[in-house]
Design goal:
Blueprint: E1 4-6, E2 25-38, E3 41-52, E4 58-64, E5 70-76, E6 82-83, E7 89-92, E8 95-98, E9 101-109, E10 135-143, E11 146-154, E12 159-166, E13 173-179, E14 183-188, E15 197-203, E16 213-218, E17 225-231, E18 242-245, E19 250-252, E20 255-263, E21 269-276, E22 284-287, H1 298-301, E23 309-317, E24 320-327, E25 331-338, H2 339-345
Antiparallel strand pairs: 1-25, 2-3, 3-9, 4-5, 6-7, 7-8, 10-11, 11-12, 12-13, 14-15, 15-16, 16-17, 18-20, 19-20, 20-21, 21-22, 23-24, 24-25
The structure holds alpha-D-mannopyranose.
Amino acid sequence: MNLSKRFKENPILRPSDIKPSIEGMYIECLLNPGVFQFDEKIWMLCRVAERTKQIDGSIKVPIFNAKGEIEILTFDHQDPKLDYSDPRVISYDGKSYLTTLSHLRLVCSTDGKVFTEPSSYMPITGKGALESFGIEDSRVTQMDDGYHLTYTKVSDIAVGVGYMFTTDWKNFERRGMIFPPHNKDCAIFGSKINNKYFALHRPSSPELGGNYIWIAESPDLLHWGNHKCIAITRPGMWDSARVGAGAAPIETSEGWLEIYHGADENNRYCLGALLLDKDDPSKVISRSIEPIMEPTMDYEKTGFFGNVIFTNGHIVKGDTITMYYGASDEVICGAELSIKQILESLK
Ligand code: MAN
């Protein structure tokens, strides 16, 4: 099933379109933007994955050291303790490192298609021991008081969900880790339900269970409880290996509509939809059998990590979802979807 209308301008943003954060690094991937409206423009908070020039025969990995400076670790291809079969992660002597270091960068647009980097907004970079391998994949939820950002905090210790708050995109209040390891793909609902905040999140349970979508509630966006699993992986299907939430669920007449990603054993990432009960979003009313979007275009099939469509940001206007997504973990693309058509596909 194909329910999406891709922008003919795709990819709308590539690594070469913006400048590296510091001299000596280059941008390998520009991906997975959080999306919001601010100052009468459409903004993306992009994940920028950087590394230093690679020299034949070795892998150079950037990390933030204890002093908060970028340090480059070098691993020799010949070293039998090194496994570099995945372009995203390497393992050395039982320890894992990311091949790139990610930060978040703001770009804005008046038409939602041509995005440029405004000079007066600073990149958001990792800080402290829990972000020594960078910060990734933000989701932005706008509420009356301002913008609530969730993102992945990555370090040698763990992967967990961080939370920041801003009203002006210049000053950020870092509110710490709200979902402890191993957890990512956290999307906060844009309004309270029965006087409680809700969020989708994705803990991983390596021994029993797996990489499933959960829901939690909170009185204050800081303390989360009453966790429930709402969607598990489905053997033999397109979402057999892992599932995770996209951006904040969309409020519709039939319930909360969530676009989520699902991957199979070959790491092929597609998108599907979940419809959650209006008053009790831990109840799943329906779920896509077929993906609503799959990697079919060249830019989705080949790249840094091919066969990937990953979304964590959109703008909703009437029936139209303008969705932004990372393709092949390398470039940023856009597509339009109709809420009505997705709801129809869920019947
Ligand atoms: C996975 C992939 C990577 C990401 C790490 C840490 O390996 O999603 O792209 O950098 O997790 O989050």
